[in-house]
From TrEMBL:
The keyword ATP-binding applies. ATP binds at P94, M95, G96, G97, G98, I99, G100, G101, G102, S103, S104. The active site is at K11, D136. Residues 201-254 form the GHMP kinase C-terminal domain. Pathway: Isoprenoid biosynthesis; isopentenyl diphosphate biosynthesis via DXP pathway; isopentenyl diphosphate from 1-deoxy-D-xylulose 5-phosphate: step 3/6. Residues 66-143 form the GHMP kinase N-terminal domain. InterPro entries: GHMP_kinase_C_dom (IPR013750), GHMP_kinase_C_sf (IPR036554), GHMP_kinase_N_dom (IPR006204), IspE (IPR004424), Ribosomal_Su5_D2-typ_SF (IPR020568), Ribsml_uS5_D2-typ_fold_subgr (IPR014721). This is 4-diphosphocytidyl-2-C-methyl-D-erythritol kinase. It is an enzyme of class 2 (transferase). Signal peptide: none annotated. Pfam families: GHMP_kinases_C, GHMP_kinases_N. HAMAP family: IspE (MF_00061). Belongs to the GHMP kinase family. IspE subfamily. The lineage of its organism: Bacteria, Pseudomonadati, Pseudomonadota, Gammaproteobacteria, Pseudomonadales.
Length: 286
């Protein structure tokens, strides 16, 4: 039996502005996404009986609600294929961390199964299906760092610096819905007028309300903030800071290890999923 094993990388929101709220309650954002060379791993094997089966259950997420299963079933329905898949997940990314683990798992599933089922689907179609699963899925389908508008689906590729990051993982799960419905959330940031999108200092509009509701996140920001500028990603809980080398990032994480949990990872403008897919295509064309 042939299996395909692919990564599902994390993302960071390098900054995030909320510029409005749509009639359906979703918020209009401006944000920059960059990937991390750190993530989950998924393996796929085709079944010819049409069954979709995830063999690795995640605690607290029922099989049929898992974004991996939902992505596979949607692709199956919309493509009309009679094939199914066995899927195995190695979960590395924290859930509710704002680093997009579930969304990335869904995107990896879409790209893997489109390939294994030999569907003639282009990236636009996969990204549109991805958006119906979550606002963060399209950027993982596209696989390039991006300036995002709308709810995160209008993507313009960008190439920010690729530093090493310390990512701290406060031991709390932050609910995206709770933060987006918070009465004190800033929702009227001014849209950016500058092009190209400026690099460097900005802010995450979710950070003040997350810090207020979750003291663990405030602590993590204060701890990392002693070494570099520290910021929240997405709606949290994870916070990150950039360093010029792996050695410096490792040193800071070691110094914080008595009170904080986290990891070090390189920022990447082409996601490791897409790098792996490109290498597979090259191999098969040799
Ligand atoms: C905060 C970010 O991670 C930034 O990249 C994303 O905007 C969140 O993306 P996501 O986790 O894929 O979110 P979804 O699963 O689409 O939405 C979860 C819930 O968050 C709220 N939500 C989400 C995205 C958005 N732009 N506005 C919202 O108000 C909605 O109540 C929605 O029901
Ligand atoms: N494969 C999956 N991996 C993680 N969470 C999943 C998965 N499938 C469904 N979920 C559900 O989605 C919720 C959000 O998980 P996720 O890891 O994407 O959070 P996040 O990092 O905060 O994402 P985002 O940055 O997109 O808001 C989880 O709490 C869980 O209930």
């Amino acid at each position: 039996m042939q299996t395909l094993t692919l990564p599902a990388p994390a993302k960071l929101n390098l900054w995030l502005h909320i510029i409005g709220r749509r009639a359906d309650g979703y918020h209009e954002l401006e944000t920059v996404f960059q990937f991390l060379d750190h993530g989950d791993e998924l393996s796929f094997a085709v079944r010819d009986d049409g069954v979709i089966r995830l063999h690795t259950e995640i605690e607290a997420v029922p099989h049929d609600s898992n974004l991996i299963v939902r992505a596979a079933r949607k692709l199956q329905e919309q493509s009309g294929t009679t094939m199914g898949a066995d899927i195995w997940l190695t979960k590395v990314l924290p859930m509710g961390g704002g680093i997009g683990g579930g969304s990335s798992d869904a995107a990896t599933t879409l790209l893997a199964l489109a390939h294994l089922w030999q569907l003639d689907w282009d990236e636009d179609r996969l990204a549109a299906l991805g958006l119906s699963l979550g606002a963060d899925v399209p950027v993982f389908v596209r696989g390039h760092a991006a300036f995002a508008q709308g709810v995160g689906e209008q993507l313009t590729p960008v190439d920010p610096e690729e530093p090493w990051y310390v990512v701290l993982v406060p031991q709390v799960s932050v609910s995206t819905v709770e933060i987006f419905s918070h009465p004190q959330l800033t929702r009227d940031s001014r849209p950016l007028k500058m092009r190209p999108v400026p690099e460097g200092n900005s802010r995450n509009d979710c950070q003040p309300v997350v810090e207020q509701s979750y003291p663990e996140v405030r602590n993590a920001l204060n701890s990392l903030g002693k070494f570099t500028e520290a910021r929240l990603t997405g709606t949290g809980s994870c916070v990150f800071g950039a360093f010029p080398s792996k050695a410096e990032a490792d040193k800071v994480l070691a110094l914080l290890s008595a009170t904080q949990t986290g990891f070090v990872a390189k920022g990447s403008n082409v996601s490791m999923l897409h790098r792996k897919l490109q290498s597979l295509v090259k191999k098969s064309s040799v």
